[in-house]
Design goal:
Bound molecules: zinc ion
Number of strands: 15
Helix content: 40-55%
CATH architecture of the largest domain: 2-Layer Sandwich
Structural class: alpha+beta
Length: 562
């Protein structure tokens, strides 16, 4: 369910304290401090080419956008009961401090700073409630647990499910309320927008999704529309509804409303098709014991490359989502797998606003010149693909065992490191074979090196950061990455290909053998910030953490539609 945080570093909003602009718990930021805090998310225009869409599709898009805007309202209400009235107050405060506070509120979708461990930046705000607004304000987690235990099986399933809130009746009893009742006015309106959009589109799969999702908003049953979303094959690729459960810190059960309204990138999608036909060849040539290779790979889970024109709710707060993996309903995943959606223009913005400035600071001047978006983007793609290649189960004493079970707490970071390093290995092979553009051969290693520092800024307390620390430190030890006395990092062109192959082999073999001891040894040796790496990170303090999108294409469409 939580594939987004596990697989995508951009979503991790717990930051190293170095980047915190709030000094201590009781302090409220003044205008200057708040401006500094907000500047960590740097504004950027997000656009996509909609000029080639037929007029009917543009009309459909307009109505989809109107539905998507409603997800902001719902997400605010789900976060905290006080959010909507607080927003109205902030809008009326025309002082410079008031306006900066409004900006902070819109960036964070609430009065708690997501880059500062959820501390409030406004006066008179309580601590962020761990249960958000999914459960009654005065209730405790223990009370909820006890109540759920006593429910009949069917009710219990709903109580633990994605799409219900728990409220208190006038008599003080806990009661279940479906999202379709709890959020009835907004969901009815959203459903009518989606139905209107369905009338305009000429794409049968888009029409089907829109109609079924409208129905879900009213019936509270999302299964059919999740299936329709998996089958989407249209120029407009919308994701809209209740999805992720991060904000329910009590039970990780309740889904937050969000939308990603995107336009499919046909050129990139064609490139993906080309890669997909080469996967068995990659597997057959992995630098590992032939016995560990899979002679017959299954189908690749669907991957879409899109450009975002609008996101809202949980899909647009704090650090921006660059890719996501949905749906979360296990029944759909078992039946059809899940779909990975890559938001290309969001990744582009992150590249230009964050990664490029980082490269200026940490790389040697020759290597700096070779950092490229193509390499950055292709590596993210190959990372996703390589999760599915190489050994997928561990064999211990001849017995097959789940890798997660064998490696336990070390599984996630080893698997993330494997996907990253094998992604580099695969890119080199594609370049050598002429499947990928030759220029990538020159740019991919230096781009990955710069990207290591971008990822490490999100901390090494989650799988992706740990995996990056492992790779960066072991490639430094292998001499494949080097650091100059002035603290500039560079790639050793002769040493890097062999080092990447060796590390790919080591990690895949470790996984195949379920070798927890070796995983532990990797962890102890490599998963920390060495002084030369920490020094480089300290020099990045002036560079934004992430982007704050301005949806210029969507705004234009909405303005023209009025
Ligand atoms: Zn991953």
């Amino acid at each position: 369910m939580k594939t987004r945080t596990q697989l995508i570093p951009f979503l991790v909003w717990t930051m190293a304290m170095t980047f915190s602009a709030l000094s201590s718990a009781g302090d409220l930021p003044d205008l200057a401090a708040l401006q500094k805090m907000n500047a960590r998310l740097t504004p950027v225009d997000l656009s996509a080419d909609v000029s080639k869409l037929p007029a009917g599709e543009r009309q459909a898009l307009l109505h989809i956008l109107q539905a998507a805007k409603l997800m902001d309202v719902l997400f605010l209400r789900q976060g905290w009961a006080g959010n909507e009235s607080l927003l109205l107050d902030l809008i009326q405060d025309r002082t410079p401090l008031g306006q900066e506070r409004l900006r902070a509120f819109l960036l964070n979708k609430g009065p708690w700073s997501r880059l500062d461990q959820g501390r409030s930046y406004l006066p008179g705000i309580p601590e962020k409630p761990a249960q958000s607004n999914y459960y009654p304000a005065g209730a405790t987690k223990a009370e909820l647990e006890k109540w759920m235990k006593g429910l009949p099986a069917k009710e219990k399933e709903k109580a633990e499910g994605f799409f219900t809130t728990v409220r208190r009746s006038p008599a003080g009893e806990l009661v279940l309320v479906g999202y379709n009742q709890e959020y009835q006015p907004e969901l009815s309106l959203a459903a009518s927008y989606l139905r209107e959009a369905a009338k305009w589109t000429q794409s049968p799969t888009l029409k089907d999704f829109l109609e079924k999702r409208a129905e879900s908003f009213l019936s509270n049953n999302y299964y059919d529309s999740d299936v329709a979303w998996m089958k989407l094959d249209a120029s407009i690729e919308p994701t809209i509804g209740p999805y992720e459960t991060y904000d329910d810190e009590w039970f990780n059960a309740k889904a937050s409303f969000e939308a990603f309204i995107t336009i499919r990138d046909d050129a990139e999608t064609a490139k993906l098709d080309k890669y997909a036909t080469e996967l068995q060849g990659l597997e057959n040539n992995l630098p590992i014991d032939p016995k560990l290779k899979n002679p017959k790979l299954g189908a690749l889970a669907p991957l879409r490359v899109v450009n975002s024109i609008f996101s809202s709710g949980d899909g647009n707060r704090g650090v921006q989502t660059a890719a996501f993996n949905l749906p979360n309903d296990d029944r759909v995943v078992l039946q059809m797998g899940s779909k990975r959606v890559m938001l290309k223009n969001v990744q582009e913005a992150k590249f230009h606003k964050v990664l490029s400035p980082i490269a200026d600071v940490v790389l040697s001047s020759t290597d700096r010149k070779r950092v490229s978006f193509e390499a950055f983007f292709n590596h993210i793609l190959m990372h996703e693909i390589m999760h599915g290649l190489g050994p997928q189960t561990a064999f211990i004493g001849g017995k097959s065992l789940g890798m997660r079970g064998a490696l336990q707490e070390h599984y996630s970071f080893i698997e993330e490191a494997k996907a990253d390093i094998a992604g580099l290995w695969a890119m080199k092979r594609f370049v050598d074979q002429g499947v990928a553009d030759k220029s990538l051969g020159d740019t991919m290693y230096v781009t990955f090196l710069a990207s290591c520092f971008r990822s490490l800024r999100f901390g090494i307390n989650e799988a992706h950061g740990k995996g990056i620390a492992l790779l960066l430190n072991s490639l430094l030890d292998a001499g494949a990455f080097q650091v100059s006395p002035r603290g500039k990092f560079s790639v050793h062109a002769e040493k890097i290909p062999a080092a990447v192959s060796a590390l790919t082999c080591d990690l895949m073999t470790l996984e195949a053998h379920g070798d927890k001891e070796k995983a532990q040894a990797y962890y102890a040796k490599y998963v920390h910030l060495r002084p030369e790496v920490q020094k480089a990170l300290d020099r990045l303090i002036h560079i934004p953490i992430d982007i704050a999108p301005r949806f210029v294409t969507a705004e234009k469409l909405l303005a023209a539609g009025k």
